[in-house]
Specification:
Oligomer: single chain
Order of helices and strands: EHEHEHHEHEHEHEHEHEHEHEHHEH
Strand order of the largest sheet: 3-2-1-4-5-6
Number of helices: 14
CATH class of the largest domain: Alpha Beta
CATH superfamily of the largest domain: Glycogen Phosphorylase B
Largest sheet: 6 strands, parallel
Structural class: alpha/beta
Strand content: 15-25%
Number of strands: 12
């Protein structure tokens, strides 16, 4: 693919220990989906340094991605709301200084939007460095033309592709290596995460009960992705009957009310307190599994390799859900039905996974 800046791109050989900048700013699930691409790069280029630009809210997640060097946080969402304030100008100067403090052999825009193109343009390349981006939109994902205009090399991708594979393929084609057969996220919980079973001894994380729990992730940014409250209650009752406590996370006041309403109908339920994202990751990692809708926390469960059933009300599981191959279905799967999967379908999917056996 010729460079979009109109200049003939000279042949470029990647250094033995390249410096690479990943630009993937948001959202939570999209950031998770980009993590395997980082693990691929580090495996293919063992001496590589990989830095990452991300919205500040998701920086604790990226900081737990094995092999990431410097996490460069930005606050584009906040800055746009207060463009001319003294605080915004100061924070932007700090961000720009950190971003431009290093020159990169490869800057890879995994977002494909105007805001990520701007960050890629603002970052510095080495004299022979290149900026890489997608040349086209893939199904179900946003794409804006400036990502091509800024790129030195724009890489065409198959439109029908999983979000994880899209990032992996883009990086592999940019840096000239084959995508590994094994997919690893490299999401490493902090020191407060350990075995979910009581026999593991004293628990360092004060948020975790002394009993195996399954987290029910009911919160999502889109109403059409939600599962009904009655369905969550019925599922929670089955989990309680099987010996599991039920954990109910929430991300805002409305979701907290839903968590409390579900918990009120269960014998053994625990509404999570407010936690930072890093503590959420560590606490989730201590669970026996997760059942949830298409949301950032569900995708974190996949990255943590927890037993997980992901619920879809329409057929987009192929694009963002855990793969339903036999190799993966041992501990993770997606279920899809319209207007929504039944409790029985979700329960059967859960029981088909390799999950702890308690009172079954």
């Amino acid at each position: 693919m010729p460079a979009y800046n109109g200049a003939a791109a000279a042949p470029f050989r990647m250094p033995v220990a390249p410096k690479i900048l990943v630009v993937k700013l948001s959202s939570l699930g999209d950031v998770v989906h980009s993590m395997p691409a980082v693990q691929d790069m580090l495996r293919a280029l063992p001496g590589a340094r990989v830095d990452w630009v991300v919205e500040r809210a998701f920086a604790p997640l990226v900081a737990r991605c094995v092999g990431v060097g410097t996490v460069i946080p930005c606050d584009l969402r906040t800055w746009r709301k207060n463009l001319w304030s003294a605080r915004t100008r100061h924070e932007y100067r700090v961000f720009k200084t950190q971003l431009q403090g290093q020159s990169y052999d490869a800057i890879i825009d995994l977002q494909g939007l105007t805001k990520s193109a701007w960050v890629s343009w603002l970052a510095r390349t080495t004299p022979r460095g290149r900026r890489y981006a997608m040349a086209n939109q893939t199904e179900g994902s946003s794409f804006e033309a400036p990502t091509r205009w800024v790129a030195d090399v724009a890489i065409p991708l198959e439109p029908h592709v999983h979000a994880v594979d899209r990032a992996r393929l883009l990086c592999a084609q940019a840096l000239k290596y084959d995508v590994p057969d094994v997919q690893r996220y490299g999401l490493k919980p902090g020191p407060n995460a350990a075995s979910p079973l009581p026999s593991a001894g004293a628990l360092a994380n004060p948020f975790v009960p002394r009993k195996p729990f399954v987290a029910l992730v009911h919160g999502t940014s889109r109403a059409d992705k939600q599962w009904s409250q009655d369905a969550w209650i019925a599922l929670g009752q089955r989990l309680n009957h099987s010996g599991f406590a039920v954990a109910l996370p929430h991300g805002n006041a409305t979701e907290k009310m839903t968590s409390e309403a579900i918990a009120a109908k269960l014998d053994d339920a625990w509404v999570w307190p407010s936690m930072g994202l890093d503590v959420v990751i560590d606490t989730l990692a201590r669970g026996a599994g997760v059942i949830g809708v298409d949301s950032g926390l569900s995708h974190i469960a996949v990255a943590l390799s927890l037993p997980h059933v992901q619920i879809y009300n329409f057929d987009t599981a192929w694009r963002t859900g855990p793969p339903n191959t036999l190799a993966h279905r041992t501990h993770q799967c997606s279920v899809t039905a319209t207007p929504q999967p039944s409790v029985e379908t979700v329960w059967q999917a859960w029981e088909s996974l390799n999950t702890p056996v308690l009172c079954r």
